[in-house]
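Exercise: predict the fold of this chain.
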Amino acid sequence: MPIGTAVHDRTFALAESLNYREWSGYYAVSAYEAHHEHEYNAIRNAAALIDVSPLFKYILRGRDAQKLVDRVITRDAMKLAIGQVYYTPWCDEHGKVIDDGTVTRLDETEFRWTAADPSLRWFTQNAIGLDVTIEDVSEQIAALALQGPNINMGMTITDPTSFYNLLNGIEDPVPNTPAGHELAYIRKIAELTDKYAVRIKEAAGLVTQQTAYPDNDLAAQLKIVARLIGGGLKTRIYMVGMDQFDTHSNQTEASDTTTGNHANLLSELSSAVKAFMDDCKYLAIEERVIGMTFSEFGRRIKKRRIPSFTDR
């Protein structure tokens, strides 16, 4: 027999239709009124609070928790910041979707995972050989979802193109099909950041001229940071990044150790940071900026046994 969720008393008082269904052992309201029109329009045009407590919930802990997440989901778990949430499917080895849900990074070695269907067995099978524990906390944690275009959330700009598209109001076109309409809605929900977006546009609009930057991805990211700081945005911490340092033994040319992949990467880093500092001076913000460089490598006290692998 189903049981009520942690907020069942509240939802029961509002469910005029008494239209309930069973969801993973819990009572769930199918529609609060005789027809779902008001609820549908609220989610599409305003805001709606939904009891999603019946979702299955898991806590992953351990040194290899990120490896397990990265092994299972179709997105890059290394880019998931602490406090950030991914919505993602997970697939088998043939690309067949097993389920979908959310993954939240709670700290460096701990994740919270939600799923519509029981997934403990699948996660456990994929955790073989990894230093990670998986705890089913489905009955310990209630969950509410707040959805709709009137909801404001924090903002992450993942690349320079996204930033300039935001400023210029550019949106990728979607096909005029039912699937295209759903895609447009999903994008709208993903960009529920109107207050933040307005402030970012205001700050960016106050800086109309900057110094020259080299043509590389890190420089493009730093140029955006300088523009936003120069425009008075109060964000205290900005994070930019570059990759491709996993060069193993292919770092330099044998004939000239000042050339090769690693030398090119350091040159890109140096030129980007130099341009950023010059721009900060031009914008008169150099006294308000401090930079820190960190790497995921170099985390072992003892050097690796392979002498030529000098990138760790």
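Check your answer against the key: The chain is about 30% helix and 15% strand.
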